[in-house]
Structures are given as structure tokens and as C-alpha cells.
Amino acid sequence: MRIAVSDSFYEVFDFQNWYPNPATEIGEIDRVVYEFDPPAGNRFEVSLDARTGPGQLGGKESYTAQLLSETGDVLVSIDFDTLVMP
After folding, report:
1. 4 Cβ partners below 8 Å, 6+ apart?
2. Widest CA span of the chain, in angstroms?
3. Cβ–Cβ < 8 Å for 48, 9
């Protein structure tokens, strides 16, 4: 399971960890690609532990996340927004 996330996503948050942890992490020009071990069944769930840092409140930002094939082709792409508020 390979997931790519816009690298600018990490500028807004004080990133802590992924659950489960990825097996590999590769930084590319405008995204970070994570490879996760296959799930035990048919369902894969991932969560992110992050918080805002001092001075990082306010503003709406847009990002992209992609599910990638083994060869790096984009299988699914989603755009999402975050809004950080006090």
C-alpha cells in the first residue's frame, strides 16, 4: 500500500506519527510517499497524530493525497482542505 501526500501538508502541523507506521518513507519534489505493509484483511486504515505548533493557527489550506500502484502510477487522487482554528 503506497500513499503520497503533499509535502506542504507538514508545514501547518507539528507532525508526530502515523499509525500504523509506514515501512518506508521517500521524500520527492512536492510530496512524501509512504509505503505501508499490507493489511491483515481487505481493509486498510491509517491515522495521523499531529498538532498545530505555536503561530500556526488560522487559514484554510488545500492538499492532495494519492493511492499509488507498485510502479508509482496514481490509482486514486483526492484533494482535501484543512482549517486550523483555536
Report:
1. 28, 31, 32, 33, 34, 65, 66, 68
2. 41
3. no
| Cα 65 from Cα 78, distance rounded (Å) | 5
Helix or strand (DSSP H, E) at 27: strand 24-27
Question: pTM of the full predicted structure?
Answer: 0.80
- The string of pLDDT tens digits covering residues 2-54 is 999 988 887 777 788 899 999 999 999 889 999 999 888 999 888 888 887 66
d(Cα 65, Cα 23) in Å, to the nearest integer?
18
What is the gyration radius of the CA atoms in the chain, in angstroms?
Answer: 14
